[in-house]
Design a protein that fits this description.
It is built from six helices and no strands. By secondary structure, the chain is mainly alpha-helical. Bound molecules: fe (ii) ion (2 copies).
Length: 212
């Protein structure tokens, strides 16, 4: 038997003004979406998940470029990769701070991303410079979609500084994407297949890091 919540009148009508202590869940479909207030547990949870997954993503990105660098030192890609790696390190440092300041639990999957990121970077680089750049295109496409989605979800949530940070990083990820294309990513053998597989893997990593 379900617990009788809120006051129901003698005809069984629920009082719509009843205080529920939180946004109504599963209510009338046409009811306006309740606005989350700063400090609201739902909103804090949402922001914590965002920081957790972005921290994981930037951690993985650093490892991908470390893997690429291990293989492509001395090639014409080296300075290009070094520049992108430097930006990823700055992104990661920012999320390290956010994780600490906001007491967000980092994903339990960091050890996995440590290995998988490096393996992905080194593995594609071993297939050739262009394959390494195809990997960057794929990852950055997934990250662009992901940051764009977060930026949209943070609208009006009282997190302007965080939203700005996401937007700034998103722009840099887009630069990485364009740089990788300029470096001939599309000429990598099996480009579409490779890109598709890495993009699906990146989306899976995002999905997992939001939850685990
Ligand atoms: Fe990044
Ligand atoms: Fe990037």
């Amino acid at each position: 038997m379900t617990r009788q919540t809120d006051k129901t009148d003698k005809r069984g009508k629920t009082d719509k003004r009843a205080k529920t202590g939180g946004p109504a869940q599963g209510g009338a479909a046409d009811a306006p979406k309740p606005k989350r207030m700063p400090g609201d547990p739902d909103r804090r949870g949402m922001v914590a998940r965002m920081i957790r997954v972005d921290h994981a993503g930037e951690y993985g990105a650093v490892r991908i470029y470390e893997g690429q660098m291990a293989v492509l030192k001395g090639t014409e890609s080296e300075p290009v990769i070094a520049h992108m790696a430097e930006q990823e390190e700055r992104h990661l440092a920012t999320f390290d701070e956010l994780v600490a300041d906001r007491r967000v639990r980092p994903t339990a999957l960091l050890p996995l991303w440590h290995l998988a990121g490096f393996a992905l970077g080194a593995g594609t680089a071993l297939m050739g410079e262009k394959a390494a750049h195809a990997c960057t295109v794929a990852v950055e496409e997934a990250i662009d979609e992901h940051y764009a989605d977060q930026i949209a979800r943070l609208e009006g949530e009282g997190e302007e500084a965080l939203r700005q940070t996401f937007e700034e990083f998103r722009q840099e990820e887009l630069e990485h994407h364009d740089t990788a294309l300029e470096m001939g990513a599309e000429e990598a053998p099996g480009y579409e297949l490779l890109k598709g597989a890495i993009k699906r893997g990146s989306r899976l990593a995002i999905w997992l890091s939001e939850r685990v």
